[in-house]
Specification:
Main location: membrane
Family: Belongs to the MAM33 family.
Membrane topology: Peripheral membrane protein
Number of helices: 3
Protein name: Complement component 1 Q subcomponent-binding protein, mitochondrial
Helix content: 25-40%
Mean pLDDT: 86
Strand content: 25-35%
Shape: globular
Structural class: alpha+beta
GO cellular component, one term: cell surface
Number of strands: 7
Amino acid sequence: ISGGWELEVHGTEAKLVRKIAGEKITVTFNINNSIPPSPEEEEETQGEQKPDEQEPDITSTPNFVVEVIKDDTKQTLVLDCHYPEDEVGQEGEDESDIFTIREVSFQPTGESDWKETNYTLNTDSLDWALYDHLMDFLADRGVDNTFADELIELSTALEHQEYIKFLEDLKSFVKCQ
């Protein structure tokens, strides 16, 4: 991923970390359940199969969490982001963001478990001007459409790698007597 991000991978969970101007930005995502169903799969269940069509590329579009920690504070700004299913893979709309912020909250810095008692703002009810400022805030820290595209590529590669490993493990497990 461009922009000086450091990658850590633990099984199906990945973490990207970047430090800029007194801030630490962390993006975490999990590749489990990150491949949306394709429209072709839905059509096949209705019995309409077209044999000449090429298989679509399988892409992993995981939900991801952005945490921004400022050096001098005891709070972490947490933004829960996702790829809306109708936006992924649509080219041409230059102005449109390919990911959205679903929720925003503050959490205590250094705590591994988030507190359910902290207020979480659902962006469905958020003023659009404030939402745009939050998107600009993320873009200023390197989390923009380019980052989101590269995250899809990274996630897809990691998912493919885990899938192959799973198939190999399954093969050796079934062979074992």
